[in-house]
């Protein structure tokens, strides 16, 4: 695959520019005026819970949904006026696979290439390269139905690359996959990133965002809550470590109050239904202080802060509910 | 939430964004000139799965012709071609069955097939993420239906010739006529299907098709009806198709042919406009 870097002439010009981007369905505000820019070659993430407006944003960026208000420019073009031209340069991996069930795996790639009006010989060559990239060479003649979930996902990604896109849009790329399939997929996406493909992905998995995204925005209820690299977001909105203690469902609330009363312990305490989170720069010290105060947690865990904690801090809710 | 709504309203009234807010960039947003790729997709899919459906479409009208035309037809006399010349019963119903098979093939392809692809296969969603526009898809699917209708029609015409039921050289023109009939039905069928939400709604189509098949001067002349009913039947699309094909296979050429052709041209146009509009609303909201 002859990928991106060489084609990117002006590094300063963003490939996606959104300002005050808004989508309203009837009385529902799905996206309530968001701003972001994606420079070429960046791996950009939208992190948020279900219903945050991520998919709607992706559909607008993918030029298959018209915005209600605001500015949007993809590769310098307005999707309202130049939908087909923009889509010709995008690769789209939708949230739910929409592979052609009546065709074999390789036929899916061939036929999809034809939709872009590409010459047959070019498509045939790319299809073979992409099957290899997706590690599906021995499945070329399989029906889509006979592929596993992870294989279907990889085929969908291969299909999205058939037109050698300048931007690859991935909506929840690993949702519903088992851990092993997820890791294979991340590896493939990481290779694309190394080759300089601009990736835009939505996810509600913080580990995915941390692995794949150079920069991300945290979205909730159609608005951007924070923006930055994963590590910067964690630095800015959370402590270095987190102590998780469980006391049993009935006793968590009471324990949280008592922990809160311990002087000098951590920056912040979050009480969740099943556990209490103590945000502290040194989790072991915090744990020692909790035990010293006479509390007896059933289990305890000290870990590094993650984007999950950032989200909890910003919205007061968990990412996966 | 309310502040956002207010902002949206304000943005709408100001026409914020790049210039005045309008939907889409005209025809170029609807049509990429690549309906062919949709046809190619259909052929590849047919090659691997659907050929049995294709086969039954050929056999069905031949059975009707043999049982009703040749069998029952031996007891029936007194039917005429559209110009009033007496002809055999088999020669009377054969062109009607031909028109009906064009209708059935086109309607099957443009309703059941399209409904499935739209709601379960998510095929169109994937297509519209490429440079294809909704008009490419509508045209491509309809061309595919025509291609199939053309194959059915050719085979049936050959059978008719073998049985001596083509009474004039103008029967050759029945083939393009069939394609026009199929185009009209496919276009309207796809437009209607694009508005249907559940399988139950699909029954309505059958509810209209069956009486039209039985009553549109298919098996007996229009003159058996009283005048108001004649008017009603003549307003139905299948009657025009039956008369068009029957005129051509029997050689009863007259100015009415132009009316039949015009009827189908209007059907095609209306169907295409609504299908394109609907696909756009569904998938490019």
From TrEMBL, chain A:
| Location in or out of the cell | Cell membrane
Q: Tell me which domain of life the UniProt entry assigns to the organism this sequence originates from.
A: Bacteria
What are the recorded Gene Ontology BP terms?
response to antibiotic
Question: Main localization of the protein?
Answer: membrane
Please provide the record's keywords in A-Z order: Antibiotic resistance, ATP-binding, Cell membrane, Membrane, Nucleotide-binding, Translocase, Transport
Q: Where is the ABC transporter domain?
A: 16-246
The protein's matches in SUPFAM superfamilies, at most eight in alphabetical order, are given as: P-loop containing nucleoside triphosphate hydrolases (SSF52540)
> Which Pfam families does the UniProt entry name for this protein?
ABC_tran
Q: Does the keyword Magnesium apply?
A: no
GO MF entry, a single one:
ATP hydrolysis activity
| GO CC list | plasma membrane
Q: Which InterPro entries match?
A: AAA+_ATPase, ABC_transporter-like_ATP-bd, ABC_transporter-like_CS, ABC_transporter_ATP-binding, P-loop_NTPase
Protein family per UniProt: Belongs to the ABC transporter superfamily.
The name this protein carries in UniProt is ATP-binding cassette domain-containing protein
TrEMBL record, chain B:
**UniProt key word Cell membrane:** yes
The record lists the membrane-crossing segments as: 51-75, 87-108, 142-163, 169-192, 204-222, 252-274
User: Taxonomic classification, please?
Assistant: Bacteria, Bacillati, Actinomycetota, Actinomycetes, Micrococcales
Q: What is this protein called?
A: Transport permease protein
Region Disordered: list its residue ranges. Answer: 1-24
Report the locations given in the UniProt record. Cell membrane; Membrane
Record's bilayer topology term? Multi-pass membrane protein
Keyword annotations from UniProtKB, A to Z: Antibiotic resistance, Cell membrane, Membrane, Transmembrane, Transmembrane helix, Transport
